[in-house]
Amino acid sequence: MPSIMLGLSGGVDSAVALYLLKEQGFHVEAVFMKNWEEEDSAYCEAATDLADAQSVADQLKIKLHLVNFSEQYWQCVFAQFLEEHLAGRTPNPDILCNKEIKFRAFLDYAKNQGADFIATGHYARLKKDNAHTYLLKARDLSKDQTYFLHTLDEQQLASSLFPVGDLLKTEVRALAKHLGLKNYAKKDSTGICFIGERSFKKFLSEYLPKKQGAIETITGEIIGEHDGLMYYTIGQRKALMIGGQKGMPEAPWYVAKKDIQRNVLIVAQGHDHPSLFTKSLITTTVHWINTPPALPLKAMAKTRYRQADQVCLIESTDNERCQVTFQIPQRAITPGQSVVFYQDDQCLGGGVIACRDENR
Prior knowledge:
The protein has helices spanning 12-23, 46-60, 70-86, 93-112, 146-149, 154-158, 169-179, 200-205, and strands spanning 3-7, 27-34, 64-68, 117-119, 125-129, 132-136, 160-161, 213-217, 222-226, 253-259, 264-269, 277-283, 287-288, 297-302, 310-316, 322-331, 338-343, 346-356. The chain is α+β, with helices and mostly antiparallel strands. A six-stranded antiparallel β-barrel has the order 12-16-15-14-17-18. Strands 3-2-1-4-7 form a five-stranded parallel sheet, with helices on both faces. α1 (12-23) runs parallel beside α2, α1 (12-23) crosses α7 and α3 packs antiparallel against α4 (93-112). The mean pLDDT is 92.
């Protein structure tokens, strides 16, 4: 039987994945990845997660390796996270972590240890056809994580396993409870792992200099001051600190745009203000998981994780970028986030959103 190394995070999904692999008769060992050096223990959950992972490994009688990837994480994920925020964009570090750490550094480690495959608790499925490996959505579409895995290539996928991809989340928790696993009811992790429960603004200010500027309405009227464009994202409502404005309707304000050159935050009133919507975007270079398709291509896409798939047309532009035009205008398309493409259940790949096309 093949030898497998599974990334055991301390959560219920990877715990059940470990059990399933053992039950199938594989030789399996587990790895707990330490990706962040955190001195402030009040915000760090790594110790708790490690204890939960060790408890599961002990109960299932599986060897647990502790591997420190924090240096690689800092260089390959966190440094880019800071650069993107400094440029006024909103990056997704989970996508980069999968690409650089979980399916590169971890995969290299596992191969060096003699493993044939790595496995994780991601909700996704794989299909193999002759010499190709395809990434498919999970059975539980409410938990599908292919959005975060779209930067992987066929070689990485061919060496990976997703044991819970055919299960519903409710089935995973029920099985964990039946097995008596300590973490069967543990909450799913949310937000950015290295920030934890602390204020995002406070955290970011420790690494990047603040640069205050004006808050303007769509029509150019100054109504306040922002603390730095890096603290805001398109569509954001909370923490704008502008409240009601004399002579203006009583309606909530939302971030509509960022004018990087002028260091101005542009806001609009109303959840459905037209300035929050656009039909088209331009990507950075697109990563295709399998053979690049012929363009133009009609497909489905999403510009954020929880979004329902949207009909779009993908067209090539200069420098291997793509223009993506949606059938229906999309709200709060955000530079720095990713647009991910699908046909039926298959994830084709995707790219980082460079800008909204304001002319379409």
